[in-house]
């Protein structure tokens, strides 16, 4: 089954297979299948044409993949342009949502900027 240029894996259950789309997670995949009236444990190869059309219609009505990535990048750029607090945190590469930075925050700040103990190695004589 192909939806907007992306192949849904045939060997996985549909609720897992739909997560190959950027922007669809497990809960959204289950909602799509529930609205389409398709069992979650079915595989994409076992679907009838009408079921496939219902799922395709649901997925194509959502903002996914490249459009979603562009929208997300535009939102972050807008925050940076208006120089708000969140925008400045994005620009500096620091956590945006209030996490502590004295320790942790390795993902954003990078692992190479760790603080040492302040002690220097002593050469042996």
What do these coordinates show?
The protein has 125 residues and is mainly α. It folds into 2 domains: 2-62, Helicase, Ruva Protein, domain 3, CATH 1.10.8; 66-109, Ribosomal protein S13/S18, C-terminal domain (30s ribosomal protein s13, domain 2, Irregular), CATH 4.10.910. It is 45% helix and 3% strand. It is built from 6 helices and 2 strands. The protein has a two-stranded antiparallel sheet with strand order 1-2. Helix 2 crosses helix 3 and helix 4 (65-81) packs across helix 5. The longest helix has 17 residues, at 65-81.
Low-pLDDT ranges:
none
- Based on CA atoms alone, the radius of gyration comes out at 23 Å
How many structural domains can be distinguished in the coordinates? 2
Please work out how many helical segments DSSP would assign.
6
Anisotropy-based shape: elongated
N- and C-termini, Cα separation: 71 Å
**Number of distinct beta strands:** 2
Q: Helices and strands: which structural class?
A: mainly alpha
Mean pLDDT: 88
Instruction: Determine and state the CATH class of the largest domain.
Output: Mainly Alpha
Largest sheet: 2 strands, antiparallel
Helix % is 40-55%
């Amino acid at each position: 089954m192909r939806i907007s240029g992306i192949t849904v894996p045939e060997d996985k259950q549909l609720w897992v297979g739909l997560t190959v789309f950027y922007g669809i997670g497990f809960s959204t995949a289950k909602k799509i299948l529930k609205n389409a009236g398709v069992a979650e444990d079915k595989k994409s190869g076992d679907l009838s044409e009408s079921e496939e059309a219902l799922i395709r219609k649901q997925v194509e009505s959502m903002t996914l993949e490249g459009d979603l990535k562009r929208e997300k990048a535009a939102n972050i750029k807008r925050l940076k342009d208006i120089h708000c607090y969140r925008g400045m945190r994005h620009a500096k590469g620091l956590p945006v949502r209030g996490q502590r930075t004295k320790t942790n925050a390795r993902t954003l700040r990078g692992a190479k900027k760790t603080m040492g103990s302040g002690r220097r190695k002593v050469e042996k004589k």
